[in-house]
Write a sequence for this structure.
DNA sequence: GATAGATACCTTTTAATACTAGGTAGGTGA
DNA sequence: TCACCTACCTAGTATTAAAAGGTATCTATC
């Protein structure tokens, strides 16, 4: 597990990305993230549900209920067109951030910073 | 400029890295980060000084005053041995986080997730 | 049938931390 | 004079991840 603070600002990006692949329900998102990250991205339900509700308010995602033959009903989330646009922006932003961080923290020799 | 939240959890890493290269004073750190990141990592003074004071309390950095012939005295910060050890840990943590994020947000085809 | 654990949703409160907006003071240049 | 740069600082606000709790259904085991 990482410093929890590292995830800040990236949760919505990760959720939009997963929902861009397919509709998923909250509990499924938690399990999927855990699986894909080899148990190092354990987003907690206290993080997930408020984050989903915010994305919904922003109209980046929508939901629909689906009754199950067995077990509780599932609230499936679906990305919207606006959500897809925001996802592209956020992904670019993330890539830029990583580039800048690498520039700052991994300073190769013979690469002087110009003023 | 990025989503401000992306920086969370990374500020101390960045500061320790810069101070691992040479002693610097607060105002210099702000300018240096701005320069190295092509003006995309503009850490504000309201962020910097509390962060430095925290690192100091944790004994990852120390300071000494240096009077200037002209202008206000400068408070130079210096990384400690403990700080260097923490820097190594934090750098590894950052790399792992980036790896996991890339795994989650950039899903190549023909790379199914195994259960 | 009782109990534990998994599934599935949720909220309230706490903690961490980046930023806004302000302050002090000296130096420089038009 | 006035603006702007250097150089330090803090109080308050906003955001958000997590902890800790709740509800309800279903399944498996003793």
């Amino acid at each position: 597990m990482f410093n929890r603070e590292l995830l800040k600002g990236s949760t919505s990006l990760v959720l939009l990305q997963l929902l861009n692949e397919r509709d998923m329900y909250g509990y499924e998102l938690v399990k999927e993230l855990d699986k894909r990250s080899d148990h190092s991205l354990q987003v907690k339900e206290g993080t997930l549900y408020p984050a989903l509700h915010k994305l919904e308010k922003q109209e980046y995602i929508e939901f629909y209920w689906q009754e199950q033959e067995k077990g509780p009903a599932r609230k499936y989330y679906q990305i919207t067109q606006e959500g897809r646009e925001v996802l592209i922006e956020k992904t670019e932003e993330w890539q830029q951030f990583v580039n800048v961080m690498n520039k700052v923290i991994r300073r190769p020799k013979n690469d002087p910073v110009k003023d």
Helices of chain B lie at 11-21, 26-36, 45-57, 81-105. Residues 4-105 of chain B form a domain with the Arc Repressor Mutant, subunit A fold (CATH 1.10.10.10).
